[in-house]
Amino acid sequence: MSKYTTGEIAKLCGVTVRTVQYYDTRGILIPAELSEGGRRLYSEDDLKRMKIICFLRDLGLPIDAISQMLSEKDPGSIISLLLEQQEQDLKKEIRESQEKLDKLETLRQELKSVKTISVESIGDIAYIMSNRKKLKKIHMNLLTIGIPVNVLQWVSIILWITKGFWWLFVTWAVIAVPHGIFISRYYFRNVAYLCPKCHTVFQPTLKEALFANHTPAARKLTCTSCSHHGFCMEVAREEAEIHE
Fold first, then answer.
1. How far, in Å, CA of 106 to CA of 134, rounded?
2. How far is Cα 199 from Cα 125, in angstroms, rounded to an integer?
3. Are 236 and 203 in contact (CB under 8 A)?
4. What is the pLDDT of residue 17?
């Protein structure tokens, strides 16, 4: 029956000698015997066990879990649980890594639009990125609030044209005015703007915000902190960071 030294079993399994010795100290790969000179000698069964350990390590299972599984008389009773847990852990790592990749890609794209890259400009981009979920929630709330009134508008127009029911359009018009005021107040109470010059988050007056030139992500405003007038990035309002 073949016997293998520490170096030989390490080579056959594609690991280092130190790894084999470490598994020995952890008690999960104890050599079958010691030679007269004190050298560790491993059997065929030990080689098979080592290959199983290496396979499970390649799957990402921790040493403690492998040790627990190999010590069981019926390893099948626990391996399914261990593999399921490892699968969940790996999926979580993949999600987290993908989120980091998405952030890196967003940062790379945002930096292309910055004329002069500085610590402050990177800080602004980081703030906008971390704030994006809150801003998206505000936009979703606006959409949810606005859809019923928009549906009523088109239904009233169609019925007026096809059935002559003009009174439904009048009802919509009566509702639309206060509804528009409510939406505008809600929106501008919950958003603020990031000044590209002094990097302050501020909130303009409702009148200035309503009539300012704007893009989907910015408005041309006057910063209340440094008086810079230009396009400022829209962010979700956070009370502690507003300079009224």
1. 17
2. 11
3. no
4. 93
Q: How are the residues of the chain apportioned to helix, strand and coil, as percentages rounded to the nearest 5?
A: 65, 10, 25
- What local confidence, expressed as pLDDT, does residue 10 receive? 93
CB of 218 within 8 A of CB of 230? no
Task: For residues 230-235, give the mean pLDDT.
Answer: 88
Residue 190 Cα to chain centre, angstroms: 23
DSSP 137-157: HHHHHHHHHHHHHHHHHHHHH
Name the phi and psi angles at 222, rounded to 5. Answer: -105, 120
Local structure of residue 192 (DSSP, 8 states): E
For the residues of 153-186, what is the DSSP string, one character each?
HHHHHHHHHHH--HHHHHHHHHHHHHHHHHHHHH
Q: How far apart are CA 19 and CA 24, in angstroms?
A: 9
Distance separating alpha carbons of residues 152 and 144, to the nearest angstrom: 14
Q: What is the pTM of this model?
A: 0.49
3-class state of residue 221 by DSSP: strand
What is the enclosing helix (H) or strand (E) of 24?
helix 17-25
Q: Tell me how far the alpha carbon of residue 155 is from its chain's centroid.
A: 40
Residue 149 tokens, joined: 């009134």
Which stretch, 5-19, 77-91, 155-169, 171-185, has highest mean pLDDT?
5-19
Q: Given this model, what pLDDT does residue 240 score?
A: 46
